[in-house]
Amino acid sequence: MPGTCRSQGRLWSRRAVLRVGGMGLLGLSYADMHAWASTPSARQKATARGVIFLHQWGGPGHHETFDPKPDAPDKVRGWFGVTATRIPGIRFGERLPKLAALADRLTVIRCMQHRMKNHNSAGYYSLTGVPPPSDDIRLRDSLDLCPAYGSLVSYLRPAPTGTATFVALPHVIADGSVTPGQHASFLGKAHNPLLITRDPNQPDFQLPELSLPANLTVERLEHRRSLQQLIDEQSRLIEYSLLARGIEENYQKAAALLLSPSFRKAFDLSQEPRSLRERYGRTTYGQACLLARRCIEAGARFVNVYFSRSIGGIGGGWDYHGNNGESTIKRLDELLPITDQTLSALIEDLENRGLLDEVLIVWVGEFGRTPRINNNGGRDHWPQCYSAVLAGGGIRRGYVHGASDKLGAYPTMGVVRPEDLAATIFTALGIDPETEIRDRLNRPLPVARGQPVRQLFA
Fold it and tell me: Superkingdom, according to UniProt (predicted)?
């Protein structure tokens, strides 16, 4: 298997193989080499133990959020003013005052760039760090496409038994068809996310997928036949999406989740003080972010939180062309306060719990919005320049990476592509971006195709 070695189910990166390749001359056995490669000094040093990936479906505009252009012409600078931050000389959009006050905890990337202009192709790129085969609105989900970040983490660095490594909530995103990049693809269904599509903001929110029926004891559950019956029953509840059905294929994993009191407890939001739930915001997105924090605290390693389910209409995410039957300002009056409240609450909550240094937050959409306001009073798709925000997990604080031109149209300093952001995320988790996996044709593929942005690390 050129370029990749397997040992007891563990993948070695090409770099690790090269580093130990000459040890045979020193009399070291294959087992000795495995033991050497498993030592902390031989692995990528992690700065984060978990990631909360806040995917802003629809594409937020940087002019309204983290890279406003107050001195640009009226048709560029947009509808709102700016607010000063705690980073000297750096301003955010005026509808983000709470985040402006927390700017000294953030890294803002102002030079994200790629070429995909359709939601599904750009969404796949954003969720996997891999360029799609085509920029096509008709791009369909396929096992030939690459797995989600969280599925790669599940494959390479699984959480302990009884904990889901990868959790996704509260939607399956789509633009017409389901957007690729939300599941394990060719890695196998065992690495699919634990998918939660119930609204955590509802008073009766619970997770029946992780609840035992009253007439089923632990002793009965230990028998394969009883477990099979349980999985069949639970599958009817979990079939909110085809992406969730992978739990059927791994009985032991399903049983471990069902029998893990600590992980099941993470989904009981009633344990949180009402004041904290209000701080996150009593919205689907706000409570989903609170639930993400609880999942990470319970041992999950990667949680995807999708801002919205679909494109268009009120509640349809960040797609504000100005022709959806509602004014752009009305749409932004909904989106921006939710973002300001929930993201700031998540950062402060993690910090108050002493977790911010070990949990990486990534806030990013599939692209940005055009620098010029269109004739419909909105902004169109614009992947040529957009912003991402990171916090915690060993990332620098109070730092702005890169810059855009005076219109916010193109980067003038630095370019960060989705594959570079992917490499940065994996590096933070202690996974060498050069580590190889195998696709359905047994071809070696690196887990990330870009380079980590070293300037982002503290």
Answer: Bacteria
